[in-house]
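thoughts on both lines:
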Amino acid sequence: MNNQHDDQRFQTVAGLSHAAIRTRSILESIRYYTEVLGLREAFRMFREDGSLATVYMFLAPGQYLELFSDGTREGIAGPDVIGMCHLCLKTEDIRRSYDMVKTAAGPLDSEIKRGKSQCLMFWTHDPDGTQIEVMEMPPESLQAQADRRMDENSGRASIRRDPPVTGGDGIIESLFEKPCWVIDILPEQVPEDSAGQYFAVEKYYLQPPMLAEIHRRFTDVLLKLNCYSDFRVCFPDSDEAFSNPDPDLLASWIGAEQKDLCILLAGEDVLITINHDDTYMTVYNPSGAVLNRIRQLAGAGGLFFRQVNAGGAFDQ
């Protein structure tokens, strides 16, 4: 009987895994999806001769955009052509997404407009002409209403939300006053009178593909640290806190555009902060086993862990 009940509730298709696009120039497409649309590269696959075959772009936990290389034959596109019509990508802030595409000199095929479903959207296209809709689904949209009905009716468990960690107990505020360390790509602070070209190198590493790789390393460190420590995660602009979120979800937050994170190691009085446009993480009040563990994990990931002196200067 239990198996029969499970079969009745089982959904043959549980979601969208990925959409696949064959590209004329995979490098141009990578640039468009990372630099113009701000997607994060997940992984690459290569042929036996070492040439690049496939790149996966991270969209959301369990959802990807797959890019194939070496497309040669032109397809037929048009509003009346049978088959795939367009690709729609979700955003939480349509205006900021529109401005980011514009700033990156990406193609804009429409202004922001409201659809019949009350969603907000604009259109762009990739180097191969694939039509891309960028959509925000506000609470009044038919899509958001349908999501709420699905959550209410399906009985699915949501991720665990805790009381705010930024409120009356002042835990995070107090930890900002404690000694801090940084997990960085550089072993020491670059002196002001350095003969090198620090700002040019920094600009290089702040490019989306390079920053995505740094965030991938941060993700590795934090997920491994989460094996030992209880995480409570919150956002500076939100009162919600999440206990030990799913690894895919935590990874998506670390790599997301415009997402800054605070991670409290509950019971250990340690705080880790990540700014979405920085090449380092800050760790407040680490000591003992936690300090040694972070040092080992950072080193294994090709990163450096060093203390910040009083007044904000780095130890050399």
The chain has a mean pLDDT of 82. The longest strand covers residues 52-60. DSSP finds nine helices and 16 strands in the chain.
